[in-house]
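Let us practice reading a record.
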Amino acid sequence: MIFHNVDHLNPSLTAVSASASSQFMFGVSHVWRMIGYLEANDIANAASEARSAIKPLSESANLFHKLSVLLGSDFSWFRDEARSVDVADAARTVYLSPDSQLVRSLNRTILSGEIDSIFQSCSEQTNSLAATLERFAKSAVGESTVRDTDIALAHELLRDLGQLVAQGQHVSSVCLLARRIIA
């Protein structure tokens, strides 16, 4: 798994982890199509893709919340294991700069023993993304051309998706390296 992967910690996490990540990626695929339709000045199909993204993103958010709860309770021991990882190496493993602001922020959270809060944050950010897409889909009803606000939204979505994906990659790498340490 490449995104917020924790299934290697315990086989009981495999279904939740895989489903959370895959639903996120399925939702994101609709966002990419939405942006493609905006580029083609096709607001109706862009709105349709936004609506299609909402369900998988919402499901993903629920599953990331579940993972956060599990990591904070049943697998709380993993917090210390994650702290033992060379987080700079984990970042480089997934082609992220250990010096980037995002990675440094994630590392502070991981090293403070609160990796589960990153999963909760991902849940909240993904829910926010779904809500933004729902607002866009509703606002696009009856429109015939792409508006300046739609272009601004596309830029925001690209930024937010980039951050979420980088966050997921880094956390997955930390979890995998921690598992190697405890195995």
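A brief commentary: Residues 11-182 form one domain.
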